[in-house]
Amino acid sequence: MYQIDWDVKDIHNSQNQVFPIRKRNLAIAAVISCQMAILSFPNQVFAENKISSLQEDTPEEVLRAEIYTDARSPIDGRQLSAAEYTELMEKMRSLDSIPPEDLVSPKVREVIDLLRLRKFLRQFIPFIP
Known about the structure:
The structure is a single chain. By secondary structure, this protein is mainly α. The chain folds into 3 domains: about 50 residues; about 30 residues, no CATH class; about 30 residues. The chain is built from 6 helices and 2 strands. The protein has a two-stranded antiparallel sheet. The two termini are about 75 Å apart.
């Protein structure tokens, strides 16, 4: 183990060395207090910024009660007004009553059926391309 010798014994032995040791101790105390003051200053600045940012935040209850005047299209993501968004949603709801088979052309349906057949056959004959 290391032992630090602060020359405390010399204070009692001779009166001439008392002042240099006190000066050194005062210097160490001054340096430590300056460092503590410097380290606490940024914390005070950040604490003030946090308090001010908390005061600027809108409460969640107010955000829930806000009426949205703009929205994004669920189809392509473009910006829509509230009226355009409701109109688009009504059109999409009207398409819900149509079966999905009627929305796809017969050629595409045939290709999908062939792909399903190929997938089924690959389970039994794995070397089919």
